[in-house]
Amino acid sequence: MIAAVVHTVLAQTSDPDNVVGWFTDRAGRDGSGAIPDQLWVTLWHALVSSAVAVLVAVPIATVLAHYRKAELLSGWIVNLGRVIPTVAVLGMATLVSIRNGYGFEPWPILVALTVLAMPPVFANTYTAVRGVDRDVVDAARAMGMSERSVTTRVEMVLGAPIIITGIRVAVVQLVATEGIGAYFGGDGLGTYIFLGLASGPIEQVQAGAILIAGTAMACDFVLWVTSRILFRRHGLGSSRRSAGADVQAEPIRSSDRLSTTEATT
Amino acid sequence: MTATVPEPRAGLDSRLRRRVIVGSTIVVALVAFVVWADDRIDQLDASTQATNPIIRWEYVFVREDTPHELWDRTVEHLQLTLEAMLIGFVLASVLSAIALRFRWTLTPITVFSGFLYTIPSLALFGVLVGYTSNWTSALIALTSYTLLILVRNIVAGIEGVPPAVTAAADGIGMSRTRRLWSVEIPLALPVILTGVRVATVTTVGLVAITSIIQLGGLGSLIFDGFNDRYTTKIVLGTVLSIALAIALDLVLRVIEWSTTPWTHGRVTR
Predict the structure, then answer these.
(1) Contact B129/A255, CB-based, under 8 Å?
(2) Is the CB of B129 inside 8 Å of chain A's CB atoms?
(3) What does the mean pLDDT of chain B come to?
(4) ∠ Cα A250 A256 A260 (to 5°)
(5) Of B48, B65, B137, B202, which has the fewest CB atoms closer than 10 Å, so is most exposed?
(6) Structural domains in chain B, sorted by start
């Protein structure tokens, strides 16, 4: 088994026509676009969609959690949102977009990614605000803070690490999923995978896979480092790393109540 | 300063009443829909195609091949999900057993399965198809995504058994194996089964993406629908895969409920 793996790896590295060869052969990928261009497309798709999702989901979740409203309902909606296949939203959005003359790019992928980003952002915001110590909230009220101040200056601040974790998870998930947009007529790093699957070479598929995985992990790392620096300065608890040493966080106890998401696909 | 007073829980009666109301509303809505749809089926014909609606009901109800095709796709979807879950569960059990027996392996094992979980599924399929058949690469990818949830919940379930209980088991002279099978695993079952349930539902959603390597179960309906510019298939694929996820969730909930009778029986105070 190990010998076979070593053999494969050796064969890959000694073969000039492999993934490494694809990366160095700039002229060979004229048809599928330059790597920086596609990378940029993927990144802005992911960033815009997550920004929209944050702008929509965070306020709603915060207000609902502050007043302890609609917990069961939002749990259901979040779980339903997790079950809806992204390809379905994307396919539907693309067809509707073509019919109405908006084209393949970029509206369908933005819509699909925004839908995908909602559940983690919403669930984490709700859980974060709900989880703030009641005594702290009572103390803030006793100091004469208005409900709005309690929400924005106490609950959201104390819940910030978990909210940021939700956003990080969402961004990573978006970058990882954005590639599917290439099948539905969009641009982005997935172009390499789908052009490779359609007409070869297989090295292009592998290179696209490496690029997507690398970008997703790089985003994860950058956002994690940023949030660590941010929260360390303000003395808030550290946010959790999904692929770090402390990954064995709590298990999923029940999917009925809203729980934080930490992992990605 | 005393802790805040816990809110009084709703009594059994009001909860039961709410459930009856919600349940009967759903049933009434379903019946009304079926009656309405049944009334309309006779009127369906090719002329509705001219209006180009989102759903063409004649494709669902009148076309003869449809039930057969949908059944095949559903079976494929179910097969991929269950095979991946089965392999994943066996692997996760072995990994958790190793992690529980040799504590120092816990961190490497969770980090490894966490790493597998972070690999984008699209990328994993893309790399794997170069080496094995489509079915095998789909299974490898789907299995690797179940491991993190399963290992985490199995380990946490076994570790969550109160030390007093294991001490009592030791005290009455149980062997280590006996203690595991008749004390620790039964007590850990709720947590383990929750993990299985969440992993299953996640896998049902992921199977759709295997369409890019000519599998995909119900997901391939979505891709076909897009390629043929035919929204009916997309809607069908979506609704059926959501229904499949909910159905599997319910089945596993029932299993969970019936294997852990002590969590819901009559409470004696």
Answers:
(1) no
(2) yes
(3) 85
(4) 40
(5) B65
(6) 70-268 (1.10.3720.10)
